[in-house]
Amino acid sequence: MNINQISGIDRLSDVSRYASASNPAAKTTGESTFEGILSSAMKLVGETDALSNAAEEEEIRFAIGETDSWHDLMIAQQKANISLQYTVAVKNTAMEAYKSLLNMQF
After folding, report:
1. Distance (Å, rounded) from C-alpha 67 to C-alpha 85?
2. Are 84 and 48 in contact (CB under 8 A)?
């Protein structure tokens, strides 16, 4: 099984762009804008939903006897679970950042 298909894992490399954001000499890309970050988050939610739907379909196929592979069922459920955990972690981080912005005094 190739776990690189879970797109949330591929996005972990995108975290390095925030480290370079504090460096004024770093180039700014189109993805570092709010619009780019928001669209990336929306893609993540869509992919999480798709993985959750795939896990549910696999459960149904297993329940009605179309497949007898426990491995495929467990893999689909784990992909959905990990994707959901990653999405929740991203949401929590975004909410913490928003709250800290609200608490700033100018």
Report:
1. 27
2. yes
